[in-house]
Fold this protein.
Amino acid sequence: MTEFKLNNGQGIELTKDGILIKGDYISLEGSITIVKNDTTASITEETKERVIATVVSIKDEGTSKDKTIEDVTATLNDRVSNLEAKVTTLVRDIDSKLISERAKTDQKIANPYSQLANGK
């Protein structure tokens, strides 16, 4: 079941089996079209001022708002963790290359005549 609030404040519930109007009244202004399948619903609300189209996932358990927030938070946390790991690896690689280049530079400064001896 997924709870959805229309722009006029009317609440509806979307399930894989149907669409339910929440509350004790129906107050629909303008044109509302809901097309659904087992997993999503496309809701188009048309008034004199605007047309709003929304695609909503239909969840079998709990409200989609709570599930969506949890899903998005988990996904974002995973992405942040992956980015942190990549950044750490890149910084480590850069540090390693800088240390290597610094060692080469220090060697050239310490022994400037070695290049001449080697024909460089």
Residues 64-110 form the longest helix (47 residues). Residues 10 and 24 are 10 Å apart (CA to CA). The first strand starts at residue 2 and ends at 5.
